[in-house]
Every structure is written in structure tokens, then in C-alpha cells.
Design goal:
By secondary structure, the protein is mostly helical. It has one domain. Helices cover 63% and strands 4% of the residues. The chain has 25 helices and 5 strands. Strands 1-2-3 form a 3-stranded antiparallel sheet. A two-stranded antiparallel ribbon has the order 4-5. A hairpin with a 2-residue loop joins strand 1 and strand 2. Helix 2 runs antiparallel to helix 7, helix 7 runs antiparallel to helix 8 and helix 18 runs antiparallel to helix 21. The chain starts with 10 loop residues before the first helix and ends with a helix.
Length: 525
Amino acid sequence: MTSPTRSRASPSDTTNRPRRWVVFAGAWLMFSLLAASWSFATPISASPDEPAHIVKAASVVRGQFIGESSALGHVVQVPRYIASTHAETCFAFAPTVSADCAVPLSGPSGEIIDSTTTAGLYNPVYYLAVGAPSLVFDNVSGIYAMRIMSGILSGFFVALAFMLVYGWRRNRIPLAAIAFATPPMMLFLSGSVNPNSLEIAATLTVFTGMLTIVSQPNNRLLTERSMIVLAGAVFAANARGLSPLWLAIAALTPLILLSWTEIRVLFAKPAALTAVIGTALATIFALLWLLRTNSLTAAIDNEGNFQQYPGIGASFFEGFTYVMRGTFGFAQTMIGNFGWLDTPAPLSVYFIWAALTGAAVLASFTVLRGRRLVLAMVLIAALGLAPAIIQGIYITGGGIIWQGRYSLPLFAFLIVGLFSLFSEQVGRLPEFMMKRLTLMIWFLWSAAQFVSFATALRRYSVGADGTWRGVVGAADWDAPGGNLLWLGIFAAVAVIAAASGWFLGSDLERTHRAPAPIDESTLAR
């Protein structure tokens, strides 16, 4: 690995993939369209705690950052159509019940009334970004617009990560890793009003940016890369309560690849130092909000809290082992469990992600050495142990709260990190083998995304036990514009995204010169 303190001419420096911002725009568009498809194919209030997040967003953009505490949550004033989302969850936890059971809104939809939200204490940054449409619309169109805004925001950061990896010398496998790090659950969350999606996308940008700075040194691009990291850090730190922890892991773990001397030289550069200061300020704001509102421990400190979870009073060991025993169950909900976690993805989807994740872990232990192996083990340990430790700490006072989707930032770090670390060695395979390998990954990704999308749409159209013919023929509930329209749009965009990702993969070193033999000294890094 080249030290970030060096600056030398190389194929990657001179070529510099000049289309990178065009690639960014295309990736942003593709992700936003996929998320928007989920937005319309998912009934209102059909994602975890979405009514609370919708009310929170609408209240924050109206200047109510917290509201008044009550036995049912924080009381705020929002339009009637926003408040009515609480009453549209008749299908929650009932997978055989279609979304047709929801009662249409009656009365003036734009009238301002009292409502409650269990997200009242949450950091307002995400909600300020996605709540603006509720100021423009006075009917349910405002909710769909808020969802689309959320998908666009998440897509912005995923596209930045994709663009960064596109500029790497060997990018075939890392580009596929960015896609693989965004499983169906990520797109589903991005198509709803939920800060979880922004947390995943923004921390992924920080991790990818730091990995790019460390492993693909280029003094000419250091300022651009540092500002990308800073942008991701500002939103990542302020997405959710645990976000500062995920941000720390994203920003610090890639530095394992550098020596102390290289780290000092890197952060002596003005661009890198600016990113550090900006990240620190954003994190300080997030921590001050957490301390001031007590949002992480409110359920522990308030005995009359409206949210009571099972397991309160249990020991750290019981909380820790609960998550460890349920590792594979949590992994399934991390990859895809839609609705109110009542609509699992097809088993084939879990198999694909399990197989590729297992292959990445095995490949890492086989070919990596030195600092690269240390980083791989740290990323594996973070995903395997951090959730259990957090639940163990929290269970005594707050009960069992962990869900698989909370681990998605760690999963994204693991996949992008491992694929990137061994790509230098695997990239020395013959060209036709590399093309076939990455083609298989992109094909499996697009196919798994589509079958997950179709499965969720069927569940809400005719119930989980309904027929596929009913989805496009005589559905109990139709997505706006019709189910067939969104099935077609999603399939087309997924195929175009996969094909584009595959065609964009190339090896600049292979293009400019014949492959060099493997140098054992580089493996030690």
C-alpha cells in the first residue's frame, strides 16, 4: 500500500477517472428511483414506527423540536393527515391482512391538530431534511413526498461512496461490494420516513471515504475526499442515538492500515485537519443533544414511560447472550424483514447474502496478512460483538430493544472493508474470471432486490397468503399508479443499475501495463 505522504505519478493519478461526478449522478438517480419505488409500494405507516417519525418530521419543520411530554409520547401540533397515520396500522403484525383494511381519512386533511410521537426526543437533523414537504402539501401526497425526500437524501450518500470506489485502481470487486452492502432492508428503509436509512448511508460514506484516503492516496484529491467524509460525518453523527458510536468506528478503523507516522503526516494536512475539526463539532452537537434530552436512557429513567420493553431487570450477561443466541435471526431481519418486521424476504435472499458474506470472511482469512488482516478481524468483531454488548448494557434498565436493522452500518463496513482488502490479491486473476465473478454478484443483487420488493408488495396487496395473479389483477390494495407499474419500474431500474455497475468496473493498472507478480511485501500491509 502506498503511503498517503507520497505523491507520485501513476495510471490512476493521470487518468483519475474523469467521469466520476457523472457516475455519482447516475448512482444517485438509480438509488433514488429504487427507494421511491419502495415509497409507493409500501402503504402509509407500513414500516417500523413510521407514524412516530412522520409526526416528528412534520412537527420539527414547524418549529416544535420536542413537544410536551405525555403518557403516550410527546404532544405536538401537525396537520390532520399526518396525525391520522397512527390509525392506519391495522395490518401491522398481521401478514395475512392486506392494506385495504386502513380507514380513509375523514375531515379537513390540512387542519392542524394535536398528535403524539414516541420520537419526540430524537435528534432533529434528519427530520428537518425530510419534513419540508408537509409544509407544501395538505394531503397524503405530503407523506409520499417526505418518503421520496428521505430516499434522495440516503441515495446522495450511497452515491458518494460509490463514486469514491469508482476512482480506485482496482474497483471491480469494491463497486460490487457497495451494492452488496445495501441489502433489500436498506432500500425498504430508505423508501420510508425513518432515520435508520440516513444513518447507514452517511456512515458508509465516512467509512468508504476514510478507506479511500488511506488505501488510494492522492494529494490532488485529498481536499475533495476530506469534504465528502465531513459531509457524511455531519449527518451520520446526528441521525440516531447510537450514530456517534458507528461514526467513530467508520472514521477510525481504516486508520489501522497506517503507521503512527503516516497518521501524523496525514492529519497535518489542512484538508484532513478541517475534516477532523468539522466532524468533532458535529459529534459534539449530537452528544449535547443526547445529554440534554436524555433520549438514549429516557425509558430507563422515567418509570411511567409509555414504552416498556421485556427483560427489564435482567443482567448484562442475559442481554449479551440473548443477542448472541439470536445472531442468525437478527441477521435475517438485517437483510430483509419488511413492514412492521412481519414480512420476511424469501429464503433465497438470505442464502445469497449469507453465501457472499461467508465467502468474503473466508477469503479475508486466507489471503490477508499484517495490518489488513487486523482491520478485517476488527470489522468482524465489531459486527459480531458490538450489538450484544450494547444490549447487555441496556437490558437491566431498559429491557430488550435490539433489532437486526440497527446493525446495518456495521454490516456495510464489514462488506466494503473485506471486499476492498482482498481485491488487490483477487484482482490479479485473469480478466475473464474477474468479469464473471462480478457479473454473478451484480446479477444476484438485482434479482434478490426484485424478489424482495415483489414479496413485500404482494403481502400488502393481497396478504402474504394471496396469489401473484391477484397482485396484478384483482388486488385488495393497489399502490398509487398500480402494482404492475411499480413492479416494472423497479425491475428495470435494478437491471440498469446492475448492468451499469458491472460495466463501470475496470482495472486501471491492467489497462496500462501487464499485471505484476504478487509481491509478498505488500501482503504484509
